[in-house]
Amino acid sequence: MALTDKDPHNARELARTVYLSGKLMRRQARGKSTTAIENEIDRIREMAQAREDARNRR
Question: Which residues pair with 10 in a beta bridge?
Answer without folding.
Answer: 2
